[in-house]
Amino acid sequence: MNANNEKAFYSNYGVGVDISAPGGGQDKKILQETIDPSSGQAKMAGFMGTSMASPHVAGVAALIRSTGVKDPEKIRKILEESAREVENDKLNYYGFGQLDAEAAIKLAKKGQFPLRLDHDLLMKLLMLAVAYVFTALFSKSIRFTALFHLGIVLGSCGFFLLKLVDIFDVPQWPLRLVSSPLGQWGNAIQGSVDINPIFASVLIPFCLMALLLGNRDAKWLAVGTSIGMAGFLTVTIFTSPDLWLLSSGLVSQIFLGVNALLCLALVNLSLKES
Prior knowledge:
Blueprint (H helix, E strand, L loop, with lengths): L29 E6 L6 E6 L2 H17 L5 H11 L18 H9 L9 H19 L8 H11 L16 H6 L6 H6 L12 H10 L6 H21 L10 H24 L1
Antiparallel strand pairs: 1-2
């Protein structure tokens, strides 16, 4: 299709066409990074053709696969059934219709249980479980208030179920932030993979303790956050210990381990003070 969602001049038609997708046209081409043959350097250039339309279909197929649909035939069927139908297409310019990414994802998720046990979800549940194991060490001194449990969640796993919320055409970083534990807020803000050692440390629990320890009720938020952070850091030691600005491997693991112990020591000290 061209920019007006019409058959492009270069497009084939007839029996061999299964689906149509954006491929650009004379007036509005598809922008792509490529190699300038004259200089050998990367440059941005506009292209058009079926070679520009195919990646759009492949991209939507990848999105469908990310929902849990793995079978190629099922992916193909979803692409065909979700395509936007074109009326009076007597010469089969568009095949099953125009590619529709949003409709394809909705169709792929239809009838699925939304909470798939992927690796990230399992890690978040493990962090939460480890945090409550640490809680047992101090159970005789802790008041299990709503603020305490909120702190446990914020420190260990965040409101990770919010990652399942799909809202098109809105900034995704607010959802990434609230669905991540405090130790991964640096990732959500920076959009990076490596964990930010400023966030993944005893620093946030220490600041909360300094601010809230004098308040009889609010201090349990700080206590819960510190225990939750210890759970997060402990699991991270063995799963994804790569830290931003620090070398990966043993140095990062030592950093995470020391800070996990400091979080627990901070809890112990705060409970003695109270």
